[in-house]
Amino acid sequence: QVQLVESGGGLRQTGGSLRLSCVASGAIYSINTMGWYRQAPGNQRELVATITADGSINLADSVKGRFTISGDFPKYTVYLEMSSLRPEDTAVYLCNAERVAFMNWSGYEESDFWGQGTQVTVSS
User: Fold this and answer.
1) What pLDDT digit, counting tens, does each position of 85-100 carry?
2) What is the rounded distance in angstroms from the CA atom of residue 46 to the CA atom of residue 7?
3) Residues of the chain predicted below pLDDT 70
């Protein structure tokens, strides 16, 4: 199977910065899209940013100008550089990989995967 492992979460004051990383591992052939979503208590999961293997980027309006996404697809890694953090950025940030082509016991498959999440807390 495929696993996604996030790192880099933590506690920052308003205006601070954080860098999140996510690495996918397993018998992977390719990944089409990697990205970050977030979920705050009582809220629905929302898209933060995604990047495709050919470099197309999608950023939520709420983070434009403050967050940057980048990817190293040969290493199945995606990063989220967060700056000018606000209390409303507080959430669990989850890594996502879409259209992951991988090998398992039954042969070739393609599926989407999620990480366990990393907590980002911004204090006012």
Assistant:
1) 999 999 999 999 999 9
2) 19
3) none
Q: Considering only CA atoms, which of 120, 47, 49 is closest in space to residue 85? A: 120
CA distances from 110 to 2, 41, 88, 121 (A): 11, 31, 35, 34
Within 8 A by CB and 6+ apart from 98, the residues are: 31, 32, 33, 34, 35, 50, 112
